[in-house]
Amino acid sequence: MKLEDLIEMYEVKKKKFGKEAYKHISEIFVEAKEVHERDFLEHPTPQGDLGQSWKPFKGHNLEKLITYIIKDEIEELGLKLVDGNKLEKTKSENLPRELSIVKRNLLIDYGDFGSHLPDADIIAYDPETLRVIAVISSKVTLRERIAQTGYWKIKLSKDKATEHIRVYFITLDEDRDLTTKTKAKKGRAIVEVDTDGSYVMSKTMIEESEKVKMFDKFIEDLRRLVNG
Questions:
Q1: Which of 39, 103, 104, 128 is deepest in the core (most CB within 10 A)?
Q2: Where are the alpha helices (DSSP H) in 20-173?
Q3: What is the pLDDT of residues 9-60, one digit of tens each?
């Protein structure tokens, strides 16, 4: 099972469901898990088990699939996307000049302890000014990283060089932490108070707010941000 296979599965859903294909991402991964299990049993790894193999596969490829889904519309807004892991693990001198500057524009100053990048799966930036517009975390559930996402928003907001950067969370919300606003769960509370918003890819309808919305609102919100 490869990313290309997931993209092909998504395109099948897109032909069937159109703009609501995003609601069926969890179904894609259910189907993909069956294939992954067969592949694993045919070619087992020396260490680890099936569960340990599947979880990182799902998380990593959710990020890649979201990038695939939003890339064209992001570029129509005049922005570019870059994998946050690429900036994190590549020394600045080994990056193209454009990405080296983007990396520098995202650094958080920890004083005597150096400067460090926030954890971000996807970074959206303006290719003309190289200004970072938004950082996006993408996870299957909130509990995997929502507290960290809130932390990075707070850190970015404390520096005038980075205070403009929006911090978003895109999730399948398979634990249903975002479903209701009233009697909010901890994850929803963190999203509402400490991030710039979360977008849900799910068939389960949620009680929306200014900070928590279905995924189909993401590009429109980003368009308003870019157009000022």
A1: 103
A2: 25-42, 50-76, 84-89, 97-106, 146-157
A3: 999 999 999 999 999 999 999 999 888 788 767 666 655 566 677 788 888 8
